[in-house]
Structures are given as C-alpha cells and as structure tokens.
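Before a colleague's protein record goes any further, I have to sign it off. I want your independent view on whether this chain really folds as the tokens say. The record follows directly below this note.
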Amino acid sequence: MDASPRSRRSGPPQGPRGAAASAWRAGAVWVLALTPSLLALLLCRVPSFDLLDYHACLALSPVVGLCAAELWWRRAAGRGDEGAAPNVRARHVALLLAGPVGVYAAAAAVVPNCAPLTGLLFYLLGPVCSSAVGACMAAVAAAISTRRRRPVWWALAAASLVPGVWHFLTAPQVFGYHGLLGWVGGALYEDALAPHAGYAWFRLLDTATWLAAAIAAHQLLGRGRSAGRGRQLGAVALLTTVAGLAAHAALGEPLGWRVTGAHVRAQLGAHADVYLRPRDGDRSREPDVRVTLLRRAGWQRDARLVAEDVGVRWLELRRFFGAAPSETIEVFVYPDVARKRRWMGAARVEMAKPWLRQVHIVWPGFGASITRHELAHVFAGVDAPLPFRVPLRRGVWPDAVLIEGVAVAAEWPVRMGLNPHHWSAAMRRLKLAPSLERLLQPTGFFAQSSARAYTLAGSLLRWIRDTYGPEALRRVTATADLAGATGVPLPELIARWQGYVDALPLTAVDLERARARFERPGLFVRPCTLEIGRCRERARAAWRRAAPDDALRQWTTLERSLARGAGGVALGVDIALSVAYAAGRNHDPADALDRLDRRVAEGGLTTTQQARVDRLRGDLLMAQGRVTAARAAWRRANIPALSAGARRLLDVKVHLSAQGEPGRTFVRDGLLPFGRRTSFGRALRSLVKASPADPVTRYLAARRGTLGPRRA
C-alpha cells in the first residue's frame, strides 16, 4: 500500500542525492548561525562600529533577527512539520547570539573598549531581543502561510515599521523603536547615546507581545492547532497580544516611544507669529514663521526677541536663495537640552525637518548664525525632492555633502575673522583637507570630522552660488547634480574652486588656528567616542548634585581605559584637560596640576594645545592663591591663534588679578569653576561696588545684560 504524502516526507533522505541534500541543509544552518559573527568581523574594520557599543548593535540587530527567523523555520522542519531537515540545536543558537560578542572580545586586544558592560547591555537590548522577535515573527508567518512564510515575514516586519516611520515623518521626533532594529537614536552626531529605561521597557513589552502573538497564531491558525486547552491557550494569547498592542498605544507617549507635535506644543505652551510678506488686507493668511517656545514669566519678551531675530534670518535667506517657502515655518525653541532630547531626540545637535518646515533649537542667542543654518535647510527644501525635501544622490540616498553644504553656504559663519573659504584654503595648505572627490563619495562625508566636512562642503556650494547664481544652487538641491546644475564637468568644477580658495591670502596665525581646529579626528573615528560623551554627561550630572569626587572618578577611569587601548601612545590633550579640570573641581588643584605636568612631559603638544594647558594651569594656580604664577600662565596662554573671546577672557583675568583683593576675589568666585562660592552676578556686583571706575569692571557690567530667552 502506498505511503501517505506525510509519511513519505517524514523519513530521512535516502541515497547519495539525499545525503548531499542533507549535508547542504546542515551547512546552511551553520552559515545562518555564523552570519552575525561574519558581519561583526566586517564591522571591526569600520570606525565606530569596531567595538561593541550602540552603533555595532544597531547594525547587528536586524541581521540577527532575520537569521533567527530562518533558524526557527529549519528547526520546525526538523521536527517534521515540513519534512526531513537537519534540526537546529542549542549550539547553533549559542553561536548565533554569542558569536559576535566573541568577535568583539577578541578585537578588544587592538581596539580600546572603554565601556564593555554598556556594550553588553546594548547587545542584550539589541541583537538578543531582536532574535526573539524575529523567531516569533517567523512562527506567526508560518502559521499564516507555510508556503509563503518568507513574504509574510517581510510583510510583518514592514508593517511593524509603519508606526516609527509615520512618527518620524509627521512629528518632531527623530528617534524610533522597532522590534528588529531596537532603538534608532536619529541624530547622527549625538555622542552620548546610552541605554535608558524607555528602551528597556519597550523591549520588554514588545518582545512579550510578539511571543503572545506567536502562541496565538500557532494555536489558532497553525497546523498543530488542537481543540480544548490548545484553543483556550490560543485565545488567552490572542487577548494578551491585543492587550500588548493597546499598551503600546497607551504607553508610547508617557514612556517616550512616541512624541507628537501637539504634545510638544502643549508642553512649550506659547507661540508668536511673524509676518514678513505683505498680507494685502488678508488678515487670515498664515504667518511666514511661527515661533513656539516655553510659556513662563516674561515669555512675551523672549518671543519678541526670537521673532525679530528669526525674521531677519528669513529675509536674508530669501535674498540668498532667490525664493522662500510659501508655507509657515515653525521654529521650536526648547528651554534646555534635556527637554529637547526628551521631546524630539536630539540633545546637543540642532536640527530641521524640511518636509515639515520645522526647526528645532535651544536658543543660541540673538544674532547667532546657527539659526540661519537650520532655517536654510527648510529654504533649500523648496526645490528639493520629496519625501524629505533634501538633495538625493541618484534620486534615492540623501546626499550629506549637499544637504549640509547648502546650509553652511547660506549660514556663512565667520570664526576668528575667517569664513569657510579661508578655512578651506588653510586646510589645503596644511594638507588636512580630503579631496572633494573623496568627500563626495557616499561615506566620504562621515569619514571626516564635522568641522572639515561642513567647511569644505559649505565653501564649494557658496562658491557655486556666487559664481553661477542662486538658480544654479537651487538646481543642485533639486537634482543633486553639480555638473548638471552648473554646466561644467565635475573635475573642472572642483579645479576651479580649488584655484579660487588657493589664491586667498592667509597669515601664519590663520594657519595655526586652522591646525588647532581641523587636526582632531572625526566623531566616528575617535576611540571610545560614545563613552567619552557619556562620561561628560555623567560628570555634569555629578557636579549638579555636588559630587565632584564622582565626576573625577568617571574621567580617571575613562583615561585609564583609553591608555590601555592606546598601547602607551600619548593620548590627545582633551582627555588630560578633562581629568585635570575634574580634579580641580574636586577641590584638589595640586593633583590637577600634577596631572597636567605628566601630560606635558609626554610631549606631542601643538602650540594651541599648549596654550589650552596653560590656560587651565593658570586657573588652577589662582585657585591655590598663587596669583603671580597664575598671571604668568595666562600670559603664556594668550597666543594669537586663540579666538578673540578666549583672548579677551585671559586679558580680563590678568588685569583683575592685579587689582587687589576685590579683583582677585571676583576672578576666583566669578571666572573660575574651582571653589566658586557665589554666583557670577553677585560677584560682579561686589566688584562694581569696590572698583566702580575700573574700565574692565565697567565693561563686564555692560556685557551683563541678557540678549535672549532665559534658560529654565
């Protein structure tokens, strides 16, 4: 009697061909288990992804989730649901989950990892949870359709992306949460990304919801469904799934997974409208700019100042681009970085959403050019393609060089008397500038420090606008094609720009300033860059709660971790200055000076770095009461390569420290971070009372006025 179709499939494969097929399937299981480890090996060659931290876990999470889904299907096949196949065993799952950790543990011998426990926590919340979600999605897909399980799985994954993508497209938030991706921070240049409670709660609830959905689908839809208790279990799991989805919707805003524009507007509470074009008697027309800011005592004054400044920037940008958005631009002004991080996701990075015509900033002060920079993104979006209103490389991928280059060209910041053309010329003469061909590559922009990349891109786009007109610049934003927008082949266009900037005159001081500004590596190529940012945040929190010893411990631990990874090579001066600064705030200036001396003895400091060391040395000496030595250090630090503001502050310290006890008291209490006993305003009032005729005192009193919204 013929065997049934199921009994024919349930036996092991027979003959050479069957053995070969079985070996092939067994090899496929091992390949799936090894895939995340192989990806980790590749990531070890990519800066910022070469240690187990946020970026590496973000890249690994979807791959681990997909491999877990494939392994679940093969395990189900091995149990007889779909015919004979090699069973997935515990060692395959262990390799899938632990393999990448082993790769990064081995890589730690050559790549410093300053926060391994933080990396492991990110790995647990990222790839490990993604593997569970991916396997549960596979179970649901197999229950819905065995033959089309992969398309169903991809459909489920795409559907689960919809809420996060929708909120990114329609709300101020730039972050998102997803079962296979984990937490997507959003702001590229944030350097203090850390695990947080909202992420942990999302993973707990989301994984539980997918597990309940998998059980419900298996009991109610799968081939293994059964009556009685199985159906009851399926009904309970279905109800649990519905409850989980409802909890997602209800808790999204309180736990920070989802933040709507209405919520942000309600939290800020006030707005001011700015009309810049004639309304021709139409009083119902929407304003050109709406400023949304925090409602508090005196908010009308803040709103007036911000509205006046934004209005001037709007008029400047309309002249620069030759056009302006016809819709209202909304400028969200946040009272501090903490609330900006909580409500839209970017803490110390100012951002714009051109497709929503929104700008999100912590107010930088009246006249600051960064306001014009962020507004320029919205103005450039008038001609840029949908959906994001930014230049798209080959019509698909956002082109960072053109996006930021156009904004810098419109902002045109002047620092220390030099504009981006001069800075670009200095970079080229110092051999610190990458070639524009390299910068224009898909990953070239992010391989450089933001200072280098933004400056070069801004100089090029400003030169194109000034040489070929605003229409050419608008064609660039519309097509992302430099050659097509200008009618000049790209190599020739770059050569013309190089000839222009190379002809600009520069002084030796300009070159020294440029060396100090551009010699630092980019964010994504610095060792332990995220841990440095997190350490800075923890230190600030420790100082706020009056625990300077904790801040010093944080920086000292980080310094030791970096020193071990550097293999005895002298570290950059930034870490040494941070440690010495923390020691000074821990009321131990002698220890801070000793740390500075050890760093100077290592050598390798440039002139500008030595000036930064001397500036801090002077502060520490003043905290010890060694006035003469402090004034000598401040004089050594006052080199032409420093900014005008830094030099002016040094002049003030030198002058007032020579004016007797009132001046020295003001320097110690008002200008030094070490042992401050009174506020700056109170110290200044005491100085004015003691030396009302001193010109520096009168200058400081005149500058005391506030020119922008107050910080909450």
About this structure: Strands lie at 176-178, 182-184, 269-274, 289-294, 329-334, 351-353, 358-362, 392-393, 397-398. The longest strand covers residues 269-274. Confidence is low (pLDDT under 50) at residues 1-11, 81-85, 566-570. The CA atoms of residues 426 and 633 lie 29 Å apart.
